[in-house]
Specification:
globular; binds alpha-L-arabinofuranose; single chain; Trefoil (Acidic Fibroblast Growth Factor, subunit A); mainly beta; 3 helices; nine-stranded mixed sheet; 494 residues; 35 strands
């Protein structure tokens, strides 16, 4: 009978354990990182770039602020906070900020990020124009300063979805505008990243049925260059329809400012997939994997046929390839539950395998901090962990459906309520008292009226804020300092 302590057996067992460890380690290392879409619960018109070790993502806010998310891994963008990089107060360009794009271009003081976006005046979309910020250095997070409005002095009309085409050692500005019943694509020459120095030229208009669903629209132009060839990918049809899709113009080598130099493909290259539950995919951007070997597309889409052109459009990404004839092959938009391999050179794991649809986070004013529960306690945290403790479902108010009630997404039935001046998350006991204490009026932010303050339904004049350094109700009469106003101001981040 072999004694367990015999040296040969012990050596054999150690070797077996080492072999198992090596096998498990190597298999773990060989497992490619994967991620699932969407990257953001609300993320229309996304623009995504990999630069100097980080991914950067900006999406339409629709308000008076511009944002930027940053993460060392693509999947990490899911939990990266959208940091405000600019807030506009000039009424001529204050509002409806759409379609952010940031391009690293040569400025007078060296390379700078030029952050393009559409914006207009409050209460109407009729005054949308294209604007640009300039970064102080080469950090995409900024700081940024307003640089100017881009327009053709000879035809200064509605303009959106500005983008940059660098071709034949020259800068060109691409954008979309209305001509009669059609939203068309224009190109114009640029003397620098913030100035057009010649007339705009129309290079595309809706002509095919797939560009005319809902409205006659061609918008969201973006340059794509590969192996010496140049394409402009654009979105066709009305953005509020499930038929919104991507089309392509191919540059044929002539003068880029001549419409004849751009040949349109008759069929869309990327469109809805009912089988995969993806509707209205469009308004895209492109980025490379960290090691530069892969081409990826970032786009927005709705996950239901009734989805429209609002902030419920989510940001999605997927790799694409090239056809033998040198044109891009975007494939079919992937389903949300499909695990896709992360970009080559991206070692990140997916921190949140699947984002719960419809959750909202409450960001503290001017902070990269979010409201969260800790059991029944409530506080602002810079890095809530688990992140799910800062996820909420915003419901019609339990006591008044014109107001709201805030339920912890990972503690069903637990609602934000006050007890006297204290604020807690507590289980809904179904009583009228609970309903009233857990109902909040949305009010214009006390620190910034484009943000949000929450007035207690059952204690008018008292707002969710801070008292003695903890999250609590604060009476308006005591919210007199800038700090107190900021403590009582939040942003609903989807
Ligand atoms: O998402 C807002 C605007 O809607 C985008 O800038 C444009 O592409 C679409 O019409």
């Amino acid at each position: 009978m072999t004694r367990l302590s015999s040296p040969r057996l012990i050596v054999g067992m150690v070797c077996a354990i080492l072999a198992l460890l090596t096998l498990s380690l190597s298999s773990a290392q060989s497992e490619p990182a994967t991620l699932r879409n969407p990257l953001t619960i609300s993320g229309p018109d996304p623009w995504l770039t990999y630069y100097d070790g980080y991914y950067y993502l900006a999406t339409t806010t629709g308000g008076s602020t511009l944002n930027m998310r940053r993460s060392p891994t693509l999947a990490g963008l899911k939990t990266a906070s959208p940091i405000h990089i600019y807030q506009e107060t000039d009424p001529s360009r204050c509002c409806n900020m759409w379609a952010p794009e940031f391009h690293l271009l040569e400025g007078p003081d060296g390379p700078r990020w030029y952050y393009y976006y559409s914006a207009g005046t409050s209460g109407t979309l009729d005054n949308q124009r294209t604007h640009v910020l300039e970064s102080a250095g080469t950090d995409p997070m900024g700081p940024y300063s307003y640089k100017g409005r881009l327009f053709d002095p000879g035809m200064d009309t509605w303009a959106i979805d500005g983008s940059i085409l660098q071709l034949n050692d020259a800068l060109h500005f691409l954008f979309s505008s209305w001509v009669g019943p059609n939203q068309v694509l224009f190109i114009a020459p640029m003397s620098d990243p913030w100035t057009l120095n010649g007339p705009r030229v129309q290079i595309a208009a809706p002509e095919y049925d797939w560009e005319k669903s809902g409205l006659n629209v061609t918008e969201g132009p973006v340059a794509l260059q590969h192996d010496g060839r140049t394409f402009i990918i654009y979105s066709g049809s009305f953005c509020a329809t499930p038929d919104y899709a991507l089309g392509m113009l191919t540059y044929n080598g002539g003068d880029p400012l001549d419409a004849a130099s751009w040949v349109k493909s008759p069929e869309p290259l990327f469109q809805r997939s009912d089988a995969n539950g993806v509707f209205g995919p469009g308004h895209n951007g492109f980025f490379k994997s960290p090691d530069g070997t892969e081409d990826w597309i970032v786009y927005h889409a709705n996950d239901s046929e009734v989805g429209v052109c609002d902030d419920q459009r989510t940001t999605r990404v997927q790799k694409f390839t090239w056809n033998a004839d040198g044109t891009p092959n975007f494939g079919v938009p992937v389903a949300l539950d499909e695990a896709i391999a992360a970009p080559s050179g991206d070692t990140g794991i997916d921190p949140l395998p699947d984002i719960t649809a419809g959750v909202t986070r409450l960001q503290g004013y001017g902070l990269d901090a979010f409201l969260r529960h800790v059991d029944e306690a409530v506080r602002l945290d810079f890095a809530p962990s688990p992140l799910q403790d800062s996820w909420f479902f915003i419901h019609p108010g339990l006591a008044d459906d014109e107001a709201i009630s805030i339920e912890a997404a990972n503690r069903p039935g637990f609602f934000l309520r006050h007890q006297g001046m204290a604020v807690i998350f507590a289980p809904n006991d179904g009583s009228a008292e609970f309903a009233e204490a857990a109902t909040w009026w949305r009010r214009p932010g006390l620190a910034d009226d484009t943000w949000l303050s929450l007035e207690a339904f059952s204690q008018p004049g008292s707002f969710l804020g801070q008292r003695f350094g903890v999250t609590a109700l604060a009476e308006l009469a005591t919210i007199t300092s800038e700090r107190a106003r900021a403590d009582a101001t939040f942003l609903e981040v989807k």
